[in-house]
Specification:
This protein is an alpha/beta fold. It has twelve helices and five strands. The structure holds adenosine-5'-triphosphate (ATP).
Length: 269
């Protein structure tokens, strides 16, 4: 019952156009759109489409966004959970939660399941100091069992995200499980400009060419960092009681993101 009975329905549909850069990743994931839109076309001729796709990349590079965009493009329900939820929220009921989510997705098929932070639940089994990881291992085993339980042609695609593919239990990566890997990278200058463009579209910038300067001066920033930078700049402008966001606002915001103080500011009321 409860949480997984219904998929989350984002109020606004996410599409590939919302994901800036990441062209290779978008191309790879978009192959699944056709299948999800019309699984029967594939089933009819006995074509088996991969069920498990691992999205690999640093934090904030758009893994969750890309998974949602696939659901939006294919127009299918999106069931999502996070590995850390199993550690923090579903204590004692992890395996049952996994079973219910897969059950609900199968009923709603064609559908997408998204497991964020797979590494927090999917680390190599039997490596915990002094044991005590039975609960986590049961959850992981249930995920493996569900992946194995797919008939080759069931129209459920399972996407999982991680920034630590190196710590994953090798069992997760075997054929028929997460055997397809899609890599997301930190954005280059052009991609940073495109990301800034998307997130600044509704912001009152004094001079939109400031975004070129920002794109050039934010090497190493993720998409999430750039989004934070713009929001912090808007907060700066509001504090000044200004109606336009200036290059100074942007510069200060960039420094804050670099100092790592933005996140804490953002959650302060
Ligand atoms: P994490 O590993 O921290 O979960 P993630 O890779 O799943 O991160 P998202 O949660 O998808 O990253 O990104 C956070 C937010 O940053 C997104 O909701 C989006 O607003 C913005 N963002 C990240 N990458 C991009 C991108 N390529 N294009 C546009 N926006 C992006």
């Amino acid at each position: 019952s409860g949480r997984f009975a219904k998929p989350s329905t984002p109020t606004q549909k996410v599409t590939f156009a919302d994901v800036a850069g990441q062209d290779q990743a978008k191309r790879e994931v978009s192959e699944l759109v056709e299948f999800l839109r019309d699984p029967e076309r594939f089933q009819k001729v006995g074509a088996e489409v991969p069920h498990g796709v691992l999205l690999v990349g640093p934090p904030g590079t758009g893994k969750t966004l890309l998974a949602k965009a696939l659901a939006g493009e294919a127009d299918v329900p999106f069931f999502s959970t996070s590995g850390s939820e199993f550690i923090e929220v579903f204590v004692g009921v992890g395996a049952a939660r996994v079973r219910k989510m897969f059950e609900a997705a199968r009923r709603a098929a064609p559908a997408i399941i998204f497991i964020d932070e797979l590494d927090s639940i999917g680390r190599t089994r039997g490596t915990g100091l002094g044991g005590g990881h039975d609960e986590r291992e049961q959850t992981l085993n249930q995920i493996l069992a569900e992946l194995d339980g797919f008939g080759g042609r069931e129209a459920v695609v399972v996407l999982a995200a991680t920034n630590r593919p190196d710590v994953l239990d090798p069992a997760l990566l075997r054929p028929g499980r997460f055997d397809r890997h899609v890599t997301l990278n930190l954005p280059d200058k052009n991609a940073r400009r495109a990301i800034l463009n998307i997130h600044a579209s509704r912001l009152p910038l004094e001079d939109s060419s400031d975004l070129d300067t920002m794109a050039a001066g934010t090497t190493g920033f993720s998409g999430a960092d750039l989004k934070n930078l713009l929001n912090e700049a808007a907060i700066n402008a509001a504090r000044r009681n200004a109606s336009l966001i200036t290059s100074d606002d942007l510069g200060e915001a960039r420094d804050k993101v670099i100092m790592g103080t933005v996140r804490s500011l953002a959650i302060r009321p």
